[in-house]
Amino acid sequence: MTRPTAKGGSRTSADRLARLLNLVPYLLARPGIEIAEAAGDLAVTERQLREDLELLWVCGLPGYGPGDLIDMAFDGDRVTITYDAGIDRPLRLTPDEALALVVALRMLAETPGVANREAVERALAKIENAAGDLVGAPVEVRLPADVGRVEALRGAVEGGRALRITYYTAARDETTERVIDPLRMLMVSGRAYVEAWCRRAEAVRLFRADRIDAVTELDESAVVPPQARPHDLSDGAFRPSPDLPLITLRVGRGERWITEYYPCEEVRAGDADHWLVSLRVTDLGWARRFVLGLGPDVTVVAPAELAEQVRDAASAALDAYAQPAPDARRAPAPTAADPALAAGSR
Fold first, then answer.
1. Same domain for 175 and 214?
2. Higher confidence at residue 213 or residue 327?
3. pLDDT > 50? residue 22
4. Do 73 and 111 belong together in one domain?
5. pLDDT of residue 111
6. What is the mean pLDDT of residues 195-205?
7. Domain that holds residue 48
8. What's the burial of 285, exposed, middle or buried (CB within 10 Å: 0-12/13-18/19+)?
9. WCX domain: which residues (predicted)?
10. Does residue 191 carry a pLDDT above 50?
């Protein structure tokens, strides 16, 4: 669940991490600085700076006990770092850390849509050179999903060719055939996508590589209309908008994970064990399948149409289980004349 930030503050965890890393050396060089002055220098609000300082209280070295965490002293509206947990020391990677970093960079270098692969490869070469034999272990890096399909999509993007694809749309639970003009390849949340002008929808669309059942490169160049614009994916592939249906669910403790996994418009405390969660969905058909897969600890509050669809689908499933299979015929009950019964009665 994304926490709202104050005006002028960062909206991403990556931005906040960079700010925290800069904050400690900044405060070390200015002991006793006023919080208002520091906030002005760092271009954040005082509230955001105080939240960052509260987070620093629980940051430090492994062990996370007394003497391991960053410490600071407050004198009114002034702050002084009294223990920096070694953040001012040069970074030294352990063998495991170096190997993990090398593997991550190798993966990044093979990721479709990386804008500056040369910069990644230069960084990788420097770390491998510094680590020496520590990173010589035989590690093979493979991208998730179908590598052959991803390579075919990447080739079409680089070659500027149109594609015919067979695509499964999870929101509508249907498979369609489309002709697309690729714009770029990219990775979002660990999944490969091709962004393209869809001639069927007459709009720019994102297509997940693992949902493309078939792909054929056409003998024609990709023609992208001038009005086509790439999506802003800084907040993920799904961007809720006010025109999408809004659903509200009553969620128990066991299903609260959906507030971290899906972008929610509002999360309110209900009783002691339940939350009221509101989120936008692509359509009610997807929402019906989503709710049915969550289990008994989730109840639809709104809209009434979705609650009725879920109730009807659940009732139909129960009715289907109540009916015996067509070929499951019971054997006739034995009678007194039945030889087996007669033998068993002796």
1. yes
2. 213
3. yes
4. no
5. 65
6. 89
7. 13-83
8. middle
9. 248-318
10. yes
127 assigned to some structural domain = yes
- For the chain, the domain total comes to 4
Q: Is the per-residue pLDDT at 238 higher than 90?
A: no
Angle, CA of 273, 275 and 277, to the nearest 5°: 160
For residue 298, pLDDT over 80 is answered with yes
Q: How confident is the model at residue 341 (pLDDT cuts 50, 70, 90)?
A: very low
SS3 for the chain, per residue? CCCCCCCCCCCCHHHHHHHHHHHHHHHHCCCCEEHHHHHHHHCCCHHHHHHHHHHHCCCECCCCCCCCECEEEEECCEEEEEECCCCCCCCCCCHHHHHHHHHHHHHHHCCCCCCCHHHHHHHHHHHHHHHHHHHCCCCCCCCCCCHHHHHHHHHHHHHCEEEEEEEEECCCCEEEEEEEEEEEEEEECCEEEEEEEECCCCEEEEEEHHHEEEEEEEEEECCCCCCCCCCCCCCCCCCCCCCCCEEEEEEEHHHCCHHHHCCCCEEEECCCCEEEEEEECCCHHHHHHHHHCCCCCEEEEECHHHHHHHHHHHHHHHHHHHCCCCCCCCCCCCCCCCHHHHHHCC
| Chain segment 101-122, per-residue pLDDT in tens | 787 787 777 665 555 677 778 8
Res 32: pLDDT: 92
Give 166's strand partners. Answer: 177, 214
Domain boundary among 221, 238, 268: 221
- CATH code of the domain in which 204 resides: 2.30.30
Give the mean pLDDT of 173-187.
86
Q: Does the residue 332 lie in any domain?
A: no
Q: Residue 226 falls within a domain, yes or no?
A: no
In this predicted structure, what is the pLDDT of residue 198? 92
Same domain, 65 and 123: no
Evaluate whether 270 touches 290 at the Cβ level (below 8 Å): no
Is residue 168 assigned to a domain? Answer: yes
Res. 3: pLDDT tops 50: no
